[in-house]
Write a structure and sequence with these properties.
The chain has 136 residues and is an alpha/beta fold. It has five helices and five strands. Strands 2-1-3-4-5 form a five-stranded parallel β-sheet, with helices on both faces. Strand 4, helix 4 and strand 5 form a beta-alpha-beta unit. The longest helix is centred in the middle third of the chain and has 14 residues. The two termini are 23 Å apart.
Length: 136
Amino acid sequence: MYADTETIRRILKDTGDTWAVVGLSNNRSRAAYGVAEVLQRFGKRVVPVHPKAERVHGEEGYASLADIPFPVDVVDVFVNSELAGAVADEAVTIGASAVWFQLGVIDEKAYERTRAAGLDMVMDRCPAIEIPALNG
C-alpha cells in the first residue's frame, strides 16, 4: 500500500547512493546493522545517524540528520513509529530525495506530509530485501 514497485525501483536505482540510516549503531544484533551491510554491498554509501554518533561500517556517524555536512539522497528510518514522523520531517528539511521507513515503521500522516513535500517514500518495507530482488 505504501510501496509501489516503481517507487521502490526509483529509490534503489535512480535516487542516489548516499543513505543516512537513522538508528544505525555498532550493535550487531540490531536490524539496522545488517541492512546497512547489504546497502554497502550494493554500492550505497551508508551514513550512520544515532545519538552516539559512532563510526559504523567504516563511515563517520552523526547525532542527527542536520549534523551531516554533505547532501543525503535517502533517509532510511529504523526508529519506532512514534518517532519516525519527526525524522521524515527532518529529511524534508535537509533536502533528501526520499524517505524509507523500515518494516514495522508506520506513520500514515508522515507518509502524506513527505509525499506532499515532493519526496518519494516507502513505508513498512526493507531495502535489504528489495535491492537483491531488483538486481536479480
